[in-house]
Amino acid sequence: STRRTLFVLTWCALAVALLASAGAAWLLLFRDRRAEPVAERQPLHVFRAGTIVVNVAETNGRRYLRTTLELGAAAPKAARRLEEQRTPIIDSAIDVLSSTPLEELLDPARRDALREHLRTRINEVVGGDPVSQVFFTEFVVQ
Fold first, then answer.
1. Which of 50, 65, 88, 132 has the greatest number of C-beta atoms within 10 Å?
2. pLDDT tens digits for 100-120?
């Protein structure tokens, strides 16, 4: 019975992750780009920081967040700088994400504020403003 429950929960988590990924892809690919400023539409250099798994704050280790973080830089030189600083970037992202309460992680309306918090913190760690955007390409709370 426990194995069956774990099996069902695993498949449910995978289904949620798949639906969230499909929704994010749809938003990124099909939203109306005419309203964006010209600077926002210019191609970014994207650095894949990696997948992060953290315990969610205030849940006594019973809930966790798994997210894949990608960082947009306006220039190739900035993207190379981010690659060189991958370890401190991941460390600072873990600090921010593991201290974020569950309610904030579950509320899609607060996701932009979380992205901005991460962008600010990573830029502080790296120095300057190499990160122009933060992308979550995976975001699953279990």
1. 65
2. 999 999 999 999 999 999 999
Distance CA 92, CA 121 (A): 7
Torsion sign over Cα 120, 46, 21, 51: negative
Residue 83, both tokens: 């690659």
Q: Which residue has the tokens 């969610």?
A: 56
**13-42 pLDDT, tens per residue?**
888 887 777 777 766 666 655 455 544 545
Tokens in use for 107? 């509320």
Name the residue with tokens 């279990």: 142
- CA within 13 Å, CB half, 75: 5
DSSP assignment string, 97-126: HHTSBHHHHH-GGGHHHHHHHHHHHHHHHH
φ/ψ of 138, rounded to 5, equals -150, 140
Please give the Cα distance from 19 to 55 (Å, whole number).
Answer: 22
The model carries a pTM of 0.68
